[in-house]
Write a structure and sequence with these properties.
Blueprint: E1 2-6, E2 9-13, H1 31-36, E3 40-41, H2 47-50, H3 53-58, E4 65-67, H4 69-85, E5 90-95, H5 97-106, E6 110-112, E7 128-133, E8 142-144, H6 146-156, E9 160-162, E10 176-181, E11 189-194, E12 201-204, E13 227-231, H7 245-258, E14 262-266, H8 272-286, E15 294-297, H9 299-310, H10 323-327, E16 335-337, E17 349-352, H11 360-369, E18 375-379, H12 388-394, E19 400-405, E20 410-418, E21 422-427, E22 430-435, E23 439-444, E24 449-451, E25 454-456, E26 461-464, H13 474-482, E27 489-493, H14 497-510, E28 515-517, E29 525-527, E30 547-551
Parallel strand pairs: 2-3, 3-4, 4-9, 6-8, 12-13, 13-27, 14-17, 14-18, 15-16, 15-17, 18-26, 27-28
Antiparallel strand pairs: 1-2, 1-30, 5-7, 10-11, 11-12, 19-20, 19-23, 20-21, 21-22, 24-25, 29-30
Helix pairs in contact: 4-6, 4-9, 7-8
């Protein structure tokens, strides 16, 4: 979230949630901040860009919320997800004691309510109370009422104001703005905000798209801007994603299914799940994936998929989508909803939330099948080191190996020695000298995984594909910046400290005439002094003039 004042007009860019350890660094949304903003602009519907909108409205924000039409449609289910699982602070919920007893007897979670006008909760005759944070409800054996979540979303989005790409709008009396599509997520857009009277302009890049999605149209750019705010997800040393990585994914998935493996893909509900269904469909068309269907473990993913299939290809959204997407993709023909983990047997594939394995069905899949050598977990995106997914893909133990022989046998153990002709491995207390000519592959091994205080031996195979990233590489962002006429100053946000600093140095070398700044939490920056000095000389960072930009978190 960024608080901006441009020529006296005060507004907010994004209202994103933070996750993991980042949530401890998130700035407080004060009533003064919320009530003082004239309007809010959202670049897209991912939770790290819109997940605190409920809190913002509760704290007093009453202005319009500008976004593109596809983003507006995706925001409702996204807000409901944030309502169910987001950190809204300590709240007092109410519930039925009888419902709690019944749920506990069945080994399921019980429902808690927040609003007195909830159509389910209002029928409870003797409500009991629970004070907790929504993020900890699952651990407490509870879940947040779906109707209350819908009320949260409805109230948070009362000011929603969709604006088509390329159409100029007036968010305030002085300012004009235009959305430009970027291929990050359906509806994602950068926005150019300008004051025609002074000539001042700010480009907010949101999340620059990678262009890897088969659903999205190429990026569109404004002709120029004085200042820009860009993302810094990837450092300058990040390698280019191979163009055939998606075909590698399809081929690997097909080989696993043909070999009778159980395949579990932890994935986020919005966009990643839909892209996976598409790649599965394409693999079947190519003949590399056998006939069948995906088992989808998420009601939210189902709703997003329905919107992708039935609503987003509609009129008015052509600027955002590829021709193939606009003709309609039959997602529903290639998956089936399931809530029974055991239904994903050998030779089947499941998509389960969450994408980093820390919650929901993916966590349960890991607990149940991480010790099964015939199960393969396929991670299809970045895995935070603090998550279960991060533990599985980022922290192999030194000398632990998984050896696959050409015969199909899989050996897990510790590598003791290696020479040009053989590999010496200790497995199950026995030493085995394996001729290298007999090896099909050797991968790093992983130590036991601890979940909820219990240790699980890791015997399942772990794979990771990075070809689904929605974020642009630094060299792609650099080329966009070079095309912006009149650019003076750029803020690098949505990044880790050391990554942002390396990006600052990289961009500064490549575009020496532009100043690149890595802001810190709560810092106020002031660019470009009085109108007579605009577009001349370096930016003036004096504390009392021009364009303050106060970054309030990633």
């Amino acid at each position: 979230m960024h608080e901006v004042t441009l020529d006296g007009e005060r507004f907010l860019l994004e209202a994103g949630a933070s996750f993991g350890s980042d949530s401890e660094l998130a700035a407080e949304i004060t009533p003064e901040l919320a009530a003082g903003a004239q309007f809010l602009i959202l670049s897209h519907a991912h939770a790290d860009h819109c997940g605190r909108l409920i809190e913002l409205v509760r704290k007093g924000f009453r202005g319009p919320v500008y976004c593109t039409p596809p983003t507006a449609r995706l925001l409702y289910p996204s807000m409901e997800q944030s309502a169910k699982h987001g950190d809204q602070g300590q709240e007092t919920f109410y519930f039925s004691a009888n419902s709690k007893k019944t749920a506990q007897r069945k080994g399921t979670n019980y429902c808690v309510h927040l609003y007195p006008d909830c159509n389910r909760g209002s029928r409870i005759k003797a409500p009991q109370k629970l004070t907790a944070n929504r993020a900890e409800l699952d651990r407490l054996g509870a879940y947040y009422c779906g109707h209350c979540a819908a009320l949260d979303a409805e109230r948070a989005l009362q000011g929603l104001t969709p604006v088509p790409a390329g159409e100029e709008f007036s968010p305030s009396e002085k300012l004009r703005a235009v959305f430009y599509p970027t291929p990050h997520l359906p509806g994602a857009g950068m926005v150019l905000i300008k004051n025609p009277a002074t000539g001042h302009s700010l480009l907010f890049g949101g999340d620059s798209g990678s262009g890897l999605s088969p659903f999205l149209a190429p990026e569109s750019l404004p002709p120029g801007a004085d200042w820009a705010i860009i993302e810094g997800t990837y450092g300058p040393e990040r390698n280019q994603v191979p163009t055939d990585s998606r075909s590698d994914f399809r081929r690997t998935l097909g080989e696993l299914l043909k070999a009778g493996k159980r395949v579990v893909i932890p994935a986020f509900t919005l966009d990643r799940s839909q892209q996976l269904i598409y790649e599965y469909m394409k693999g079947k068309q190519e003949g590399v994936i056998p006939p069948g269907e995906i088992l989808l473990y998420s009601s939210s993913a189902e709703e997003f998929t329905r919107i992708y299939e039935e609503e987003l290809p509609g009129t008015g959204n052509a600027a955002f989508f590829s021709p193939e997407f606009l003709t309609g993709i039959p997602f529903s023909s290639h998956y089936r909803s399931s809530r029974e983990i055991a239904e994903t047997g050998y030779g089947k594939v499941a998509i389960a939330t969450s994408g980093m394995g820390d919650a929901g069905f993916s966590r349960e899949f890991i607990k149940r099948y991480i010790g099964d050598p015939e199960t393969v977990f396929v991670f299809v995106g970045y895995q935070d080191p603090e998550t279960l997914g991060g533990s599985l893909v980022l922290a192999p133990e030194e000398n632990l190996v998984v050896v696959t022989l050409k015969s199909g046998e899989v050996i897990r153990g510790r590598k003791l020695a290696e020479n040009t002709g053989s590999l010496l491995v200790e497995s199950d207390g026995k030493k085995r000298a394996l001729p290298k000519a007999a090896l099909a592959g050797v991968e790093p091994g992983i130590p036991n995984l601890t979940i909820d205080g219990r240790s699980y031996p890791v015997k399942a195979r772990i794979l990771q594909f990075n070809c689904f990233s929605g974020h642009a590489r630094p060299e792609e962002i650099l080329e966009n910046l070079k095309k912006l006429a009149g650019l003076k100053t750029v803020l690098i946000v949505h990044s880790e400290g050391s990554t942002a600093e390396r990006l600052r140095d990289y961009y500064s070398r490549e575009i020496p005439g532009v100043e690149f700044i890595v802001p810190v939490l709560g810092e106020e920056l002031v660019f470009n002094p009085a109108p007579e000095a605009k577009r001349t000389g370096p930016p003036d960072l004096s504390p009392d003039r021009g364009l303050p930009v106060g970054p309030l978190g990633r």
